[in-house]
Fold each of these.
Amino acid sequence: MGRVLVRVQPDDFDVAEELDRLAALPGVGAVAQFVGVVRDRPADDPASATADAPTVVGLELEHYPGMTETALQSIAERALAGWPLAAATILHRVGALTLGDRIVLTAAASPHRHAAQEACAFMMDRLKTDAPFWKRELMSDGAARWVAARATDDFASKRWDP
Amino acid sequence: MKILYFAWIKERIGVATEEVSPPEEVGTPRELAAWLAKRGDNYAAAFEDLEVIRVAIDQQEQTLDTPLGAPSEVAFFPPVTGG
């Protein structure tokens, strides 16, 4: 029986602490993790363009209290059902974040690496399409705009469909 | 029923949540959105393109044509962009 840890919080999280906790579980030989951070280039132009193009200086992250936690719990539980995991963790921040801040951690622990790596990727891909969060980018020129959903995220999520 | 709005839908309408009592003939989220859109220009602007709006009934994501039933809350939001 696996173990799920899911949290939605304004505060930062300690990646090392979370990974150490997973690594210490009985039978664990692999811990895979993904950390998403606030990027300087906007979502609609990540490679960006000209040197004087406005850059991202912060994000505001909104969620649907209750539904968001349920969605993350469901994603982590599906990871546990799909791979031989000792544990799965999803932590996601909300509220005001600045450039370079951590946004999200997905982590999976298993006896061997492939299950951990695949489950970690699965959780992140599904989070992108299934968990109710909305990002607003705050730009260096003072503008702010809601990030649009990306078709590539839909494709990435669908590859896990049975 | 309680209605919740998120992200730019909330911004356009100007409130995050409200209690409404739609008439009986409002049976789906699509009909609810059309009914809400008549409440003012801000609502009309929020619901002008239903293609980019998602809905949850009692915190379960549904289609715009799912029967509403008698929900305690209905949420309208854009496609999600977390992570």
Amino acid sequence: MTLPRHDGPFRFQDGARVRVGTGDPPGHIRTPMYLRGKVGEVVRNCGAYRNPERLAFGGDGLPLLPLYVVSFRQRDLWPDYAGPASDTLTADLYEHWLVPADVAGE
Amino acid sequence: MTGPHDVGGRPDAAGPVDRSEHVFADWETRVDAIQRLCGGARFWRLDEFRRTIESMSPEDYVSYSYYQRWVKAQATLLVEKGLLSADEIAERLERLRGEMGGAE
């Protein structure tokens, strides 16, 4: 299937520090709970895709949403993490779930 | 709300990973075939299928096997989309039980 083009800007560049939203809206959410409110770094722009939160209820998922690979330090996610400080976890997150890290959580 | 699937960082909800190979039962390959047909024809989207699975009650989600979740979600979506009614599914199940001599 051919996706319509995403003409909008991409808000975040590679290397941007971002904070995941802390909201807990009802519906079909792909952002894992354990990442809500955590700060990570954008490591890749994956392009723009239909919004799964709307596709899940039969919608067309438009407008397209930018999707990023965001890297988190394991030590920032788990209070008791005993592994090396360099250990990371990456997740695919849609742009509407991200704010610049210097903006306080919602 | 944390769904029953969202178990990252919740040792209370996620036990050790079972790494044994799965041997498919006949009914599981049929469930897989229904999924390929309905998903391939865009009768429902993967996101709708996920939504249906992940909105199960935690009790159901935990007690069902992987393909039991699939077939429950398929039944829910077939009714939601109006292709079958819940009564039609119940009647067919009843008839199959009879044909199988009451075996589960």
Amino acid sequence: MIFKRTIPLLIVFGIGVLGFMQYYVPHPWSTAFRDEMTTWGMVIGGFATFLGIYSLSHMHATRILRQVPGWGYSIFVFIGAIGMIAVGIYSDIFGPLASGTKHEVDPFDWGYDNILIPCSATVFSILAFYMASAAFRTFRARNLAAGLLLAAAIIVMFGRVPISESVSDWLFNDRMVIPNLSKAIMDYPNLAAKRGIMLGIALGVISQSMRILLGIERSYMGGGD
Amino acid sequence: MRKSHPVIVTTWVTVALATMVFTFAFASAFAGPAGAAIAAATAPATTQAATGPATSQVTTQPALTASCVPDPNSFRAFDRPDDDGSGILVVWGQPARQPEGVKFIIQVARSKEDFQAGKFKTQEVAPSPKIVAKKKPNYFGYSEDANKLYYADITPAKLFKPAHPGPLTEQRLREFAEKHDITSGELDLALAVMAAMEEEKSAAQAATQPAPPTATAPAAFEPPKIKPVRRRVGMADRKWFAKFAAHLGKLDAEAVGAETRDINAQPCFFRLAVKLGDQMLLIERDGEPAVVQAAARENLFKWAKLNNLVLALIFSAIVVAFIEIAKRRPGLFIRKIAGLEAIDEAIGRSTEMDRPVYFVHGSGSVGDLSAIASVNILSHIAYRTAEHDSRIHVMNQDPIVTAVSQEVVQQAFTEAGRPDAYHPEDVSLTAYEQFAFVAAVSGMMVRRRPGAIFILGYFGAESLLLAETGSSTGAIQVAGTDAYTQLPFFITTCDYTLMGEELYAASAYLSREPRLLGSLRGQDVGKAFIMVALLIGTILLTAAVAKGWDVAWVAWLRGLLEAGKG
């Protein structure tokens, strides 16, 4: 119990309090402590990466072996991972497959720039369609609150496109009425709500931190409360 | 008469003490760390303005007059507060007249004599709203007097730069060896690798150069040159040298860092001049150019954050007090959180439909509180899932969170009496890249159609992609994040959303453990405290604007509120 509970909790308390103090102490010792902790974090992260790779490989290997629905996609995980590792080693001039010189067109960079980034951009671009479908579902004036939300959304969206100035000029003889209204909604009611949420988050962080530092909250260590 | 509970008394005493400290912080922040400097700088400026400061004219030009020169008494230098000893602040009063194109020249020297010898550095500052001291309330406070001052932030090491060690050469390697930073064996090997690399470079250059014209006359016999015997340099040696050079680079960086700290710690002397075109007027005091002195110090506390610390301590004291109260008086009332009440319903529905439960972590690592909060909630959800004899799949973006999640889920299944139902492959790293993660999770959602989806943690652009895909599968979705920019997406697409603090409260709420619930109560009391403070502040500021009060605390309060704008 000492090694599984008491010592970890003491470490959490000690490092937690030092981390808290570090925020208020600008002395180089404090900065050195932060840098040291960052280094430790990177070391732990490095070990955890191996665990992550094992976990990923284990999951996809199990899927292939059991031929669960969609197991074919898991093959691509191995093709992609092994392929990139191989070209990564090959690109390194000191690697076992190295030709001895750095390539002008690095195969690893080429794979990253021409496969991963376009794929990521493709997934990101879907966001536009999802936004439209989510907005369509949400902006239905079913009650007063939803109606107000709809009206505010229309003003904010419309106030942010150039045509709103022309329409504003035509309706109110002033080019900036609708853009200013849009800005006012963002600067006052929206900002007030945002600050309310942020204050709540700050209090939640303090409360959660106290629970963890005092060892009351231990779910993250496994074993419930 | 009913006797007060000792914990309540302790709480009130703590809060009262903290409030006293906060009042002190209020006064300190109002005065500002450099408040004394401002008071001294601005007070005599008025009297000096009547007579005009004494000046020495380096170049006589009619356009630049004495009224363009700041009051010499306002010219001061002092250690930059709240820093690690790398900066000095120089302040001076705004002159009565500032012709267009005028600039302030700060001359920095290591001693007064260096000014005479011309051994000084200069920093040019153009007058603009950016250099008004009021822009830096953390240094100069919220006083209106700061509006009349200009400031410059001087880092001595940027002016008196430390010597750069330069590229790695044979000479430098020998210097490292003399200082015993490297061994003689390392020196020999490094020299051999460098020579081999140099030779290869020369050979490559010779190969690219055009061949010399062929001589018509037969060349005279030359005896073959005997190359010096050199150690063979293999690929492993080169690899070693790359690491060795990086290590030496680190030693160089450390040496430069130490020298930089030394340079910053030494006292600096400052003179101030006003420049317009070719004309320059140097500020004088008692017939001599005014010289001020300061040295940067390594500070131990960020005084500008004192109010932050005091508030954090007050709220921490409130939370701890309510934890103690909850231990003695269990059964505190806690408001209902719909999203958390729905967890059992979602898991139950999932079990009835014989579909798995999906738990999607955010992008934070274990250093982020949102990730820790998510892991805490995962513990409860995994336990309930095990009780329902259902299956849970946990998707992670971070390897460390994956490892922690595996431990937490396994422990939860064991505690629920179902260790056999735990499948290690169900809690795995899905992808490290943001959109690769989205693609993988979305694909699994569509193929396996889970009955309940929990999306908890910190999210960026992936929030809507995940939630909208989950929504299309017909699953009950419970989302929670402290990324307020993503909350609208979750609210529109999920059945229940935990907003900000509710994410942190979830674990305590679900456990129903009295001490954890006490902390939630403390959190709510803290929120009430902030609401009252905001209300009072709003009333005071509104009254101040309506009545036209022009007192310092109004400016301070307004500055405090405007500081977080946007």
